[in-house]
Amino acid sequence: MKIKKIKLWPNFDSRGNETLKVGIQNEKNIFFFANVGSGKSKGKKEIESKGFNDIEKIQKFLDSLNNQKFSSLGEFENKLFELDPQKFNLGGNVFLGLSLAFARALADEFGIELWQLLKQEYNFPFQEKKPFILVNLINGGVHVENNLDIQEYLLVVDYENEKTIKDLIEFYFLLGEELKQKFSLRILPLGDESGYALDFANNLEPLVILEKKAIDFFSKKNKKFYLGLDCAASTFFHHDHYFFETQKLNNQELIDIYLSFKEKVNELYFLEDPLAEDDIDGFQKIKQKGTFKIIGDDLTVTNPAITQKMIELKTIDGIIIKANQIGSLRETIETVKIAQKNNLLVIVSHRSGETEDNFLIHLAKAINADGLKIGVPFKERISKFNELVVVYGSDN
Fold this sequence. Notes:
- The chain has 13 helices and 14 strands.
- By secondary structure, the chain is of the alpha/beta class.
- The chain has an eight-stranded mixed barrel, surrounded by five helices. A three-stranded antiparallel beta sheet has the order 1-2-3. It has a three-stranded antiparallel beta sheet with strand order 7-8-9.
- A hairpin with a 5-residue loop joins strand 1 and strand 2.
- The longest helix is centred in the middle third of the chain and has 22 residues, at 162-183.
- It is globular.
């Protein structure tokens, strides 16, 4: 495929922060776009993104790709790594955006879907596999201004069809009504991902409320559910201690708190980043307990070398995949294959600062992901759920 022109546009994510939209024009003068979001809670080793002030410099850097021809996504990515091996010039958002825009253009040329192109390009087997969905219903941590240290309270259900999404929408609003009544509120504050963001008695209370409501709701539908926490523990780790609620804790004391949560909330199953990203000893301790599925995010930052090391150190049972953490499709896929080879759960995730780009649904389908983490089916996140129905199919 021949690239006629590459162009960048200033864009904003769902939090109103700067991001850059990438467009690749083919010989038919059709533009194919990609618009990569960003997170507020980031691992220290995550690739940096570029903003509005970088457009002119990056545009000049990319002009060398105009009127060049590439026969595959792999060949195009080879060129990008040749031009900017450390992504210092392009940043993770533009580097990744270029690969995604090119992949969309190439898929159009072949008359196939984006997920099909990615599956073929990276040699993943075709499987009829539907993911479980992790829905962030209650927000805390750095995503909001409330008293919760824990960043996300997650409901986890298997995706079957569009009725699953309808159930999740119904549950989201029923939970909101219950919270209004319980706390005598007329309007509920919402966090960066549209989860409920009010103050609670402590970090356990949202879990207790969620489990009780979910048991009542899903038992009537004869459907199974689990609960999870994205603890984002690096955000409350300072000077070698965890500052959780009113306590100053070491890693064993924090683990004991998580274990006490499990005693009170039986359906608590997933813990994402329960310890700080540098606390390898803590991750090893909690994984050895075997009580939870321990998921790495800030710990692994979708980096193949780091993921391999964390597997060898026996720290995780699963991994969050955020392509913009590493900033390239190729390295994202390498991370996925390492994880799958070692029987880790692979969960493709959005970012707290999202855009209208729904590529992550296609990525999940292409790699046969176990899970999808895409927020709540509300406001700007609903586009991800609508794409989920299109890509994974409907009963209608």
